[in-house]
Specification:
The chain is an alpha+beta fold. It has helices at 7-10, 94-103, 120-125, 133-177, 278-287, 289-294, 306-311, 319-362; strands at residues 3-6, 11-13, 28-35, 38-43, 48-49, 52-56, 69-72, 75-78, 82-87, 127-130, 182-184, 189-193, 202-203, 209-212, 230-232, 237-239, 244-247, 256-258, 263-265, 269-274, 313-315. It has three domains: 3-130, DNA methylase specificity domains (Adenine-n6-DNA-methyltransferase TaqI, Chain A, domain 2); 135-180 and 317-367; 182-316, Adenine-n6-DNA-methyltransferase TaqI, Chain A, domain 2 (Alpha-Beta Complex), CATH 3.90.220. 36% of the residues lie in helices and 23% in strands. A hairpin with a 2-residue loop joins β3 (28-35) and β4 (38-43). The relative contact order is 0.12.
Length: 367
Protein backbone atom coordinates (compact mmCIF):
# COMPACT_ATOMS: atom_id res chain seq x y z
CA UNK A 1 0.00 0.00 0.00
CA UNK A 2 1.46 3.35 -1.04
CA UNK A 3 1.15 6.56 0.90
CA UNK A 4 -0.41 9.53 -0.95
CA UNK A 5 1.28 12.92 -0.50
CA UNK A 6 1.12 16.37 -2.09
CA UNK A 7 3.76 17.31 -4.65
CA UNK A 8 4.81 20.33 -2.58
CA UNK A 9 5.66 18.02 0.31
CA UNK A 10 8.34 16.14 -1.62
CA UNK A 11 9.70 18.85 -3.97
CA UNK A 12 11.16 22.31 -3.62
CA UNK A 13 9.68 24.68 -6.22
CA UNK A 14 12.42 26.92 -7.66
CA UNK A 15 10.24 29.19 -9.77
CA UNK A 16 11.80 32.33 -8.28
CA UNK A 17 15.06 31.47 -10.08
CA UNK A 18 13.62 31.12 -13.58
CA UNK A 19 13.68 34.14 -15.90
CA UNK A 20 12.57 34.81 -19.49
CA UNK A 21 14.80 36.33 -22.15
CA UNK A 22 13.05 38.28 -24.89
CA UNK A 23 13.90 37.25 -28.44
CA UNK A 24 15.62 40.55 -29.15
CA UNK A 25 17.90 40.05 -26.14
CA UNK A 26 18.78 36.39 -26.76
CA UNK A 27 22.30 35.65 -27.89
CA UNK A 28 22.93 32.27 -29.53
CA UNK A 29 25.05 29.97 -27.41
CA UNK A 30 25.65 26.44 -26.14
CA UNK A 31 23.07 26.26 -23.35
CA UNK A 32 19.50 25.02 -23.85
CA UNK A 33 16.69 27.50 -23.15
CA UNK A 34 13.63 25.64 -21.80
CA UNK A 35 9.97 26.58 -21.96
CA UNK A 36 6.70 24.75 -21.27
CA UNK A 37 7.24 22.02 -23.86
CA UNK A 38 11.01 21.60 -23.92
CA UNK A 39 13.95 23.36 -25.54
CA UNK A 40 12.86 26.48 -27.44
CA UNK A 41 16.27 28.02 -28.14
CA UNK A 42 19.99 27.95 -27.30
CA UNK A 43 21.56 30.83 -25.38
CA UNK A 44 24.97 32.02 -24.18
CA UNK A 45 24.34 31.79 -20.43
CA UNK A 46 22.66 29.50 -17.88
CA UNK A 47 20.88 29.81 -14.52
CA UNK A 48 20.66 26.13 -13.49
CA UNK A 49 23.39 23.52 -13.25
CA UNK A 50 21.73 20.47 -11.71
CA UNK A 51 19.26 17.68 -12.42
CA UNK A 52 15.69 19.00 -12.00
CA UNK A 53 12.14 18.31 -13.17
CA UNK A 54 10.32 20.86 -15.32
CA UNK A 55 6.53 20.95 -15.59
CA UNK A 56 4.72 23.03 -18.19
CA UNK A 57 2.89 25.97 -16.59
CA UNK A 58 1.04 26.93 -19.75
CA UNK A 59 1.05 25.84 -23.38
CA UNK A 60 0.48 22.18 -22.50
CA UNK A 61 -2.64 20.40 -23.79
CA UNK A 62 -4.41 20.59 -20.47
CA UNK A 63 -7.47 18.39 -20.20
CA UNK A 64 -6.19 15.79 -22.67
CA UNK A 65 -3.91 14.00 -20.25
CA UNK A 66 -0.94 15.19 -22.30
CA UNK A 67 0.96 16.86 -19.47
CA UNK A 68 4.40 18.19 -20.26
CA UNK A 69 6.88 17.05 -17.59
CA UNK A 70 10.53 16.29 -18.28
CA UNK A 71 13.93 15.99 -16.62
CA UNK A 72 16.76 18.46 -17.25
CA UNK A 73 20.47 18.03 -16.53
CA UNK A 74 23.67 19.98 -17.07
CA UNK A 75 23.69 23.74 -17.55
CA UNK A 76 20.56 25.44 -18.91
CA UNK A 77 18.16 28.37 -18.70
CA UNK A 78 14.42 28.16 -17.87
CA UNK A 79 11.84 30.80 -18.77
CA UNK A 80 8.64 31.56 -16.85
CA UNK A 81 6.48 29.05 -18.76
CA UNK A 82 7.76 25.99 -16.88
CA UNK A 83 7.74 25.20 -13.17
CA UNK A 84 11.09 24.06 -11.77
CA UNK A 85 11.02 21.22 -9.23
CA UNK A 86 13.87 19.90 -7.09
CA UNK A 87 12.81 16.52 -5.64
CA UNK A 88 13.85 15.78 -2.05
CA UNK A 89 16.33 12.92 -2.64
CA UNK A 90 15.56 11.15 0.62
CA UNK A 91 11.92 10.78 -0.46
CA UNK A 92 11.60 10.61 -4.21
CA UNK A 93 13.56 10.29 -7.47
CA UNK A 94 13.23 12.65 -10.42
CA UNK A 95 12.04 9.97 -12.80
CA UNK A 96 9.15 8.97 -10.55
CA UNK A 97 7.77 12.52 -10.58
CA UNK A 98 8.30 12.97 -14.31
CA UNK A 99 6.62 9.70 -15.24
CA UNK A 100 3.72 10.20 -12.86
CA UNK A 101 2.91 13.76 -13.96
CA UNK A 102 3.18 12.74 -17.61
CA UNK A 103 0.78 9.86 -17.10
CA UNK A 104 -2.14 11.60 -15.37
CA UNK A 105 -4.73 14.21 -16.31
CA UNK A 106 -4.10 17.43 -14.37
CA UNK A 107 -6.97 19.43 -15.86
CA UNK A 108 -8.69 19.85 -12.49
CA UNK A 109 -5.67 21.79 -11.24
CA UNK A 110 -5.60 24.17 -14.22
CA UNK A 111 -7.25 27.59 -14.16
CA UNK A 112 -8.15 30.08 -16.89
CA UNK A 113 -10.32 29.65 -19.97
CA UNK A 114 -8.49 31.78 -22.54
CA UNK A 115 -4.98 30.72 -21.49
CA UNK A 116 -5.23 27.59 -19.28
CA UNK A 117 -2.51 27.67 -16.65
CA UNK A 118 -1.20 25.42 -13.90
CA UNK A 119 -0.29 27.92 -11.19
CA UNK A 120 2.25 27.24 -8.47
CA UNK A 121 -0.28 26.98 -5.65
CA UNK A 122 -2.22 24.27 -7.47
CA UNK A 123 0.98 22.54 -8.53
CA UNK A 124 1.95 22.07 -4.89
CA UNK A 125 -1.39 20.41 -4.07
CA UNK A 126 -1.23 17.72 -6.77
CA UNK A 127 -1.56 14.32 -5.06
CA UNK A 128 1.12 11.77 -5.89
CA UNK A 129 1.66 8.23 -4.59
CA UNK A 130 4.92 7.73 -2.72
CA UNK A 131 6.19 4.14 -2.67
CA UNK A 132 9.57 3.41 -1.07
CA UNK A 133 12.62 4.58 -3.02
CA UNK A 134 13.55 1.02 -4.00
CA UNK A 135 10.06 0.47 -5.42
CA UNK A 136 10.24 3.78 -7.31
CA UNK A 137 13.55 2.73 -8.85
CA UNK A 138 12.24 -0.71 -9.81
CA UNK A 139 9.15 0.68 -11.54
CA UNK A 140 11.11 3.44 -13.27
CA UNK A 141 13.62 0.88 -14.59
CA UNK A 142 10.74 -1.21 -15.93
CA UNK A 143 9.15 1.84 -17.59
CA UNK A 144 12.50 2.91 -19.05
CA UNK A 145 12.97 -0.50 -20.66
CA UNK A 146 9.41 -0.67 -22.01
CA UNK A 147 9.49 2.89 -23.33
CA UNK A 148 12.89 2.37 -24.96
CA UNK A 149 11.40 -0.47 -27.02
CA UNK A 150 8.35 1.63 -27.92
CA UNK A 151 10.51 4.62 -28.88
CA UNK A 152 12.68 2.36 -31.02
CA UNK A 153 9.58 1.06 -32.81
CA UNK A 154 8.39 4.64 -33.41
CA UNK A 155 11.82 5.64 -34.72
CA UNK A 156 11.99 2.61 -37.05
CA UNK A 157 8.59 3.47 -38.53
CA UNK A 158 9.62 7.12 -38.85
CA UNK A 159 12.78 6.11 -40.71
CA UNK A 160 10.67 4.17 -43.22
CA UNK A 161 8.55 7.28 -43.71
CA UNK A 162 11.61 9.52 -44.12
CA UNK A 163 13.27 7.13 -46.58
CA UNK A 164 10.13 6.98 -48.73
CA UNK A 165 10.01 10.79 -48.79
CA UNK A 166 13.68 11.00 -49.80
CA UNK A 167 13.05 8.61 -52.69
CA UNK A 168 10.12 10.73 -53.85
CA UNK A 169 12.17 13.92 -53.62
CA UNK A 170 14.98 12.29 -55.61
CA UNK A 171 12.51 11.19 -58.28
CA UNK A 172 11.01 14.70 -58.39
CA UNK A 173 14.46 16.26 -58.89
CA UNK A 174 15.18 13.83 -61.70
CA UNK A 175 11.83 14.53 -63.36
CA UNK A 176 11.76 18.32 -63.11
CA UNK A 177 15.34 19.52 -62.79
CA UNK A 178 17.48 17.18 -64.90
CA UNK A 179 16.48 17.89 -68.49
CA UNK A 180 17.38 20.28 -71.32
CA UNK A 181 13.81 21.01 -72.39
CA UNK A 182 13.40 23.91 -69.94
CA UNK A 183 11.08 26.90 -70.33
CA UNK A 184 9.89 29.68 -68.01
CA UNK A 185 6.65 28.81 -66.22
CA UNK A 186 4.78 31.58 -68.05
CA UNK A 187 5.21 29.67 -71.33
CA UNK A 188 3.05 26.77 -70.15
CA UNK A 189 0.87 28.29 -67.42
CA UNK A 190 -0.98 31.44 -66.44
CA UNK A 191 -0.12 33.06 -63.11
CA UNK A 192 -2.93 34.99 -61.42
CA UNK A 193 -1.89 36.98 -58.35
CA UNK A 194 -4.57 37.45 -55.71
CA UNK A 195 -5.98 40.75 -54.51
CA UNK A 196 -7.82 41.01 -51.21
CA UNK A 197 -11.38 42.35 -51.39
CA UNK A 198 -12.70 45.08 -49.10
CA UNK A 199 -12.71 43.65 -45.58
CA UNK A 200 -16.27 44.87 -45.02
CA UNK A 201 -17.43 42.49 -47.75
CA UNK A 202 -16.33 39.38 -45.82
CA UNK A 203 -18.83 37.00 -44.26
CA UNK A 204 -19.08 33.42 -43.02
CA UNK A 205 -22.71 32.95 -44.05
CA UNK A 206 -22.10 31.69 -47.58
CA UNK A 207 -23.14 34.98 -49.17
CA UNK A 208 -21.26 35.82 -52.37
CA UNK A 209 -18.07 34.15 -53.63
CA UNK A 210 -15.84 31.78 -51.63
CA UNK A 211 -12.63 33.54 -50.56
CA UNK A 212 -9.18 31.96 -50.28
CA UNK A 213 -6.78 34.30 -48.51
CA UNK A 214 -4.08 31.83 -47.56
CA UNK A 215 -3.27 28.57 -45.73
CA UNK A 216 -6.16 28.99 -43.28
CA UNK A 217 -8.36 27.89 -46.18
CA UNK A 218 -6.01 25.05 -47.17
CA UNK A 219 -6.39 21.36 -46.35
CA UNK A 220 -3.38 19.35 -45.20
CA UNK A 221 -1.05 18.12 -47.94
CA UNK A 222 0.01 19.72 -51.18
CA UNK A 223 -2.86 18.18 -53.10
CA UNK A 224 -5.50 18.97 -50.51
CA UNK A 225 -8.55 20.97 -51.56
CA UNK A 226 -9.23 24.54 -50.54
CA UNK A 227 -11.96 25.08 -47.94
CA UNK A 228 -14.85 27.51 -48.32
CA UNK A 229 -14.79 29.18 -44.90
CA UNK A 230 -15.06 32.86 -45.81
CA UNK A 231 -17.04 34.58 -48.54
CA UNK A 232 -17.01 38.01 -50.13
CA UNK A 233 -19.65 40.06 -51.89
CA UNK A 234 -16.97 42.14 -53.65
CA UNK A 235 -14.66 39.58 -55.33
CA UNK A 236 -11.50 40.82 -57.03
CA UNK A 237 -9.21 38.21 -58.60
CA UNK A 238 -10.44 34.68 -59.37
CA UNK A 239 -9.24 31.11 -59.50
CA UNK A 240 -11.06 28.26 -61.19
CA UNK A 241 -11.80 24.86 -59.71
CA UNK A 242 -8.71 22.67 -60.22
CA UNK A 243 -6.18 25.52 -60.32
CA UNK A 244 -3.04 25.16 -58.22
CA UNK A 245 -3.13 27.67 -55.35
CA UNK A 246 0.24 28.88 -54.13
CA UNK A 247 1.01 30.83 -50.94
CA UNK A 248 3.13 33.83 -51.89
CA UNK A 249 3.56 35.70 -48.59
CA UNK A 250 5.05 34.99 -45.19
CA UNK A 251 6.44 31.81 -43.65
CA UNK A 252 4.12 29.57 -45.71
CA UNK A 253 5.44 30.88 -49.04
CA UNK A 254 5.61 27.94 -51.46
CA UNK A 255 2.87 25.88 -49.81
CA UNK A 256 0.17 24.76 -52.24
CA UNK A 257 -3.34 23.33 -52.46
CA UNK A 258 -5.83 22.77 -55.27
CA UNK A 259 -8.88 24.98 -55.73
CA UNK A 260 -12.01 23.00 -54.87
CA UNK A 261 -14.35 25.58 -56.45
CA UNK A 262 -14.24 28.78 -58.46
CA UNK A 263 -13.25 31.36 -55.84
CA UNK A 264 -11.86 34.79 -55.12
CA UNK A 265 -8.18 34.78 -54.13
CA UNK A 266 -6.66 37.26 -51.70
CA UNK A 267 -3.22 38.86 -51.82
CA UNK A 268 -1.55 35.97 -49.99
CA UNK A 269 -2.33 33.52 -52.80
CA UNK A 270 -1.60 33.04 -56.50
CA UNK A 271 -3.48 30.72 -58.84
CA UNK A 272 -1.40 28.76 -61.36
CA UNK A 273 -3.41 27.45 -64.33
CA UNK A 274 -1.78 25.16 -66.88
CA UNK A 275 -2.33 25.73 -70.58
CA UNK A 276 -2.80 22.03 -71.28
CA UNK A 277 -1.60 19.75 -68.43
CA UNK A 278 -2.52 20.83 -64.89
CA UNK A 279 -1.10 17.71 -63.24
CA UNK A 280 2.35 18.53 -64.59
CA UNK A 281 2.14 21.98 -63.03
CA UNK A 282 0.78 20.61 -59.75
CA UNK A 283 3.56 18.08 -59.26
CA UNK A 284 6.18 20.62 -60.25
CA UNK A 285 4.96 23.21 -57.71
CA UNK A 286 4.77 20.53 -55.02
CA UNK A 287 8.39 19.58 -55.74
CA UNK A 288 9.61 23.19 -55.94
CA UNK A 289 8.20 24.43 -52.62
CA UNK A 290 11.62 24.93 -51.02
CA UNK A 291 12.96 26.75 -54.07
CA UNK A 292 9.92 29.04 -54.26
CA UNK A 293 10.38 29.97 -50.61
CA UNK A 294 14.08 30.65 -51.19
CA UNK A 295 13.46 33.22 -53.95
CA UNK A 296 11.10 35.24 -51.76
CA UNK A 297 12.26 38.74 -50.86
CA UNK A 298 12.08 40.29 -47.40
CA UNK A 299 13.85 38.78 -44.40
CA UNK A 300 11.03 39.33 -41.88
CA UNK A 301 8.07 38.69 -44.16
CA UNK A 302 9.16 36.91 -47.37
CA UNK A 303 7.00 37.16 -50.47
CA UNK A 304 7.30 36.26 -54.15
CA UNK A 305 6.09 38.40 -57.05
CA UNK A 306 4.28 37.40 -60.23
CA UNK A 307 7.46 38.10 -62.21
CA UNK A 308 9.47 35.74 -60.00
CA UNK A 309 6.88 32.97 -60.31
CA UNK A 310 6.50 33.37 -64.06
CA UNK A 311 10.28 33.21 -64.49
CA UNK A 312 10.73 29.91 -62.65
CA UNK A 313 12.20 27.37 -65.04
CA UNK A 314 10.31 24.14 -65.61
CA UNK A 315 10.84 21.19 -67.90
CA UNK A 316 8.43 20.94 -70.82
CA UNK A 317 8.73 17.49 -72.46
CA UNK A 318 6.13 16.26 -74.95
CA UNK A 319 2.71 15.22 -73.65
CA UNK A 320 3.39 11.49 -73.84
CA UNK A 321 6.54 11.80 -71.70
CA UNK A 322 4.70 14.04 -69.25
CA UNK A 323 2.00 11.41 -68.80
CA UNK A 324 4.59 8.68 -68.20
CA UNK A 325 6.46 10.79 -65.65
CA UNK A 326 3.25 11.83 -63.90
CA UNK A 327 2.27 8.17 -63.56
CA UNK A 328 5.61 7.46 -61.82
CA UNK A 329 5.26 10.46 -59.53
CA UNK A 330 1.65 9.64 -58.74
CA UNK A 331 2.42 6.03 -57.83
CA UNK A 332 5.33 7.08 -55.61
CA UNK A 333 3.29 9.83 -53.95
CA UNK A 334 0.39 7.47 -53.23
CA UNK A 335 2.81 5.01 -51.64
CA UNK A 336 4.06 7.81 -49.40
CA UNK A 337 0.50 8.59 -48.28
CA UNK A 338 -0.01 4.95 -47.34
CA UNK A 339 3.28 4.91 -45.41
CA UNK A 340 2.35 8.17 -43.67
CA UNK A 341 -1.01 6.81 -42.57
CA UNK A 342 0.65 3.62 -41.35
CA UNK A 343 3.19 5.66 -39.40
CA UNK A 344 0.51 7.86 -37.83
CA UNK A 345 -1.55 4.82 -36.84
CA UNK A 346 1.43 2.93 -35.39
CA UNK A 347 2.63 6.00 -33.51
CA UNK A 348 -0.85 6.62 -32.11
CA UNK A 349 -1.16 3.00 -30.99
CA UNK A 350 2.29 3.06 -29.40
CA UNK A 351 1.52 6.30 -27.56
CA UNK A 352 -1.68 4.68 -26.27
CA UNK A 353 0.41 1.70 -25.18
CA UNK A 354 2.69 4.04 -23.26
CA UNK A 355 -0.30 5.52 -21.45
CA UNK A 356 -1.61 2.06 -20.61
CA UNK A 357 1.75 0.99 -19.20
CA UNK A 358 1.97 4.18 -17.12
CA UNK A 359 -1.54 3.67 -15.78
CA UNK A 360 -0.83 0.06 -14.90
CA UNK A 361 2.43 0.76 -13.10
CA UNK A 362 1.68 4.07 -11.42
CA UNK A 363 -1.95 3.81 -10.35
CA UNK A 364 -1.91 1.62 -7.28
CA UNK A 365 -3.94 1.41 -4.09
CA UNK A 366 -2.75 4.02 -1.62
CA UNK A 367 -2.90 4.20 2.14
Amino acid sequence: MWKMVKLGEICDVLDSLRKPITKKDRVAGDYPYYGATGIVDWVEDYIFDEKLVLVGEDGAKWGSGDTTAFITTGKYWVNNHAHVLRPMPELVIHEWISYYLTGIDLSEFVTGLTVPKLNQANLRTIPIPLPPLAEQQRIVAKLDAAFAEIDEAIETTKNSKDNALKLYEALSREVFFAGDDVVPLRDIATVIMGQSPNGKSYNADGVGTPLVNGPVEFEEGSFGRSKSIKFTTQPTKFCKSGDALLCVRGSTTGRMNLASVDACIGRGVAAIRAHNNQQWINYFLQSARGYIFSIGTGATFPNVSSKQIESIEIRNPNQEEKRELIDKLSECYENIQVINKTYDLKKSNLVILKSAILAQELQREVA
